[in-house]
Automatic annotation (TrEMBL):
Keyword Transcription in annotation: no
Transmembrane segments: 51-74, 86-104
Domain Phosphatidylserine Lipase ABHD16 N-terminal intervals: 7-134
UniProt keyword list: Membrane, Transmembrane, Transmembrane helix
Pfam families, per the entry: ABHD16_N
Family annotation (InterPro entries): ABHD16_N
Protein name in the entry: Phosphatidylserine Lipase ABHD16 N-terminal domain-containing protein
């Protein structure tokens, strides 16, 4: 049980997997087909990646435009205590939604056998960095 929880935690916080390298080379494919070793995400992982991309995009946009927004809010008289509470509530909702989609991504990775193999190998190499484990 403890091992499964550790694996689930690693699936939540682990790196993104783009492709795998099979033990046997795949048969040659036509030019219009993708190779068989490209990692295929399931729906939960794809949905959470889309949400995280939208959050990163909006945070990046906010980093650039916050001085203009601050001037606009000041001139409109919106910098009050009540509006600060609304902003904190909105920030809390965004944090809860982010945590939910992190868990959803972890579940999607946990049920994917290719990602389980990858994360086991990744942490073996990370914690025991010998030439044998890197092979």
């Amino acid at each position: 049980m403890k091992n499964q929880l550790i694996l689930f935690w690693r699936c939540i916080l682990g790196p993104k997997l783009y492709q795998t390298y099979p033990a046997l080379p795949p048969p040659p494919v036509r030019n219009d087909q993708q190779p068989a070793h490209i990692y295929e995400k399931n729906t939960a992982e794809s949905l959470s990646d889309t949400v995280f991309f939208a959050l990163k995009l909006s945070i990046g946009l906010l980093k650039v435009t916050w001085p203009l927004c601050l001037i606009y809010f000041y001139r409109r008289g919106l910098l009050t205590y009540d509006n600060g509470l609304v902003t904190l509530r909105l920030t809390g909702c965004i944090v809860i939604i982010s945590a939910y989609f992190m868990l959803l991504r972890g579940v999607g990775r946990y049920v994917n056998p290719n990602y389980k193999v990858f994360i086991d190998e990744f942490f073996k190499v990370k914690h025991n960095s010998t030439p044998e484990t890197r092979q």
